[in-house]
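Final report, closing paragraph on structural work. Over the funding period we assembled a curated collection of sequence-structure pairs, and we close with a single example.
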Amino acid sequence: MVSMTATSTPAPQTIGFWFDPLCPWAWLASRWMLEVETVRPVRTEFHVMSLSVLNEGRDLDPADQDEMDRGWIGVRAAIGVERIHGQEGLRAFYTELGTRYHLKGETKGDAAVVRGALEALDLDASIAERATTDEWDEALRASHHAGMDPVGSDVGTPVLHINGKAMFGPVISPAPRGEEAGRLFDGVNLMTAYDGFFELKRSRTVGPILD
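Its predicted structure, as stored:
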């Protein structure tokens, strides 16, 4: 009699991804990670950081300060969604709000845009109003620092937690698709597995290619 041994599928590698919905570079990297999930045994866990928190107390020019002021409602709403609807709700909300911000050109920082994203997903629409207050700021700051403190200073978003390390990036434009996305992830995974790897960088020559 031949003994049959069942083969088990290995658990997917979990990657932590910290984002602010305001940031187009985080948006591109997040679309890449979702594409990676289709071609590699990887699961992305989304978490909220805040550019508004990051830049508190800094001497910004008026345009940048205005953007930081408008950024609060998106991250507060994202934290509210995570607390009420969990990880799956947050994943869906980020995609919906990011699509409105980065692809449809809807106004960032507008409570009506946030409410529209919530309603489109049948999520608790009261989150939009609650996100105009500081109700969830303690949770927001905790999530922010959990993602950002291990990376170090002078970085923004996206941030990956991968192979036991926290890394800024990757900064990509446009987001690769299919196997190309998988190969890029393979390279990032390989580099970050080496304890001595810290940085690989060149100057950007293009802006965010969002289409």
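Residues 13-193 form a domain with the Glutaredoxin fold (CATH 3.40.30.10). The chain has one domain: 13-193. We thank the funder for supporting this effort.
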